[in-house]
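Subject: sequence -> structure tokens, single chain

Hey, anyone have a minute? Need the predicted structure for the following. Not urgent.
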Amino acid sequence: MTRKTMLLVCIAFVFVGIVGFQMVGNGLHLLQSPGTKVENYKESDYGLGSGYVDSLKQYPDVKLGERQPFEIWEYAGKGESSFGSPELPMPWSEWVSLLKNQKPKLMKDVRTYMASRYNFTNKAIPNQFMSGGRKPIMAGPIAKITGNVKSFEDLSKMSADEIKKKDLFPYKPLAHPLQTIAHMVFPDAWNKVHPEHERIDMDHDFPDSYLPEFPAPMFLSTHKELGDVTKGQEVTLANYYEIFNGLLTAEQMEGLKELLRPTPTTWFNQTNHRVTLEPSAGVSCFSCHVNGHTNGAFELGPDSRPNFARLRVDTPTMRGNYNLMQLASKRSIRSMDHFAEVEEYFDGDPGMQQAIGPRSQKRETTNRMGDFNSILDYAPAPKLDPLGKLYKDKATEQELLGENIFHGKGQCITCHSGPAFVDDYLHDLQVERFYKGRPEGPIKTFALRGIKDSPPYLHDGRCPTLGDTVEFFNLVLELQLKKEEKEALVAYMLCL
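Reply:
Had a minute. Here:
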């Protein structure tokens, strides 16, 4: 044996000594350490109660494109794979036929389901409008109470166990209407202007009156004197230069351009793996975050598998992101440039991105996108003083009462403090105490500054109005607020 060979053998035995080995025939077979395992392991209920996990259903066996039950919270378990495929399970013509034929019945059932949960009256709060001054703010609560309960006040007197046992909780999660495909669903108002985003499989499930104004005004922290810098226009690649040249730095102009530039996504792209009839250039950040705000489009959060375990998430506003230390509902992303870099156009599946065409954003580009994002301001709040308190000579008695409840009995200030009215933490509200279903876990607290412009509420839109949001937290936090106190809280939040 030569010296070189002996040296190689010695190195091999040192390596094998670390990872383990097994003699196979006349050769060595390297092994990875198997790790340890608890003997007689017993499953815990993790504080959810004896038999809770076992009481949940296994996810339904439905194929891509097929509809699933809307009560998706009743299910739990593990999927077949963490990875998706860019190949459809059938020819394109059959895919289109399946989705087109299914859509009328699906949307009829979606409307029936939403009507069973909400009373969409289109009744507005008198003399209250979103910041653009055009769109009325809807009155609430509009969630329906079932059973023999007459009012929210009666419901709030019941214990969590009793509400759960009698299946009376009106604010169960909302599922994506077609969760097997999922992805972005744009409002009708957007699709009328951008028909390339109209889906062949489904439509939005909320009436337009319960969604943000479109197009929303845009306010810049660097030019408060201009108010809405768009002057009522939707900012696009065709007009952004004319609107912003002379207002932004060259770096911010580049960032805005990239926020407006469409790129392929999992289901909006140039391949057959899509939900639009014609090939699409994709979507941009501002397709959902119109004018740096939101148009009410919804998606599924990318942070779990299988698809049925992913939570429906509404598009949040980008206004005031300069005051937020955490972004995204569950992933705790810590900067705007990082968010621009990882924005989940491909639902957390790098394989899909490689097959369809990555966004290919360099770090210097995402930094510039974050740079523009950092000057998007909230709409003016003329009744708030520099420390976020109401001016007593500008506020009504009801609004001042609401502020007192916000800081006191309502306990809102616990999670909604500071200039953005947010604590920048994730909280687990343990809402499963009130209904039989899979726990949703910690969700990021959303800022309340400018909240009147961003219906519907909670991460999945299950609270269509501010009135519903107050009722939700009155139940979940067991606050026992009186009717006039809840109305005062809504009046106060309209000032923010």
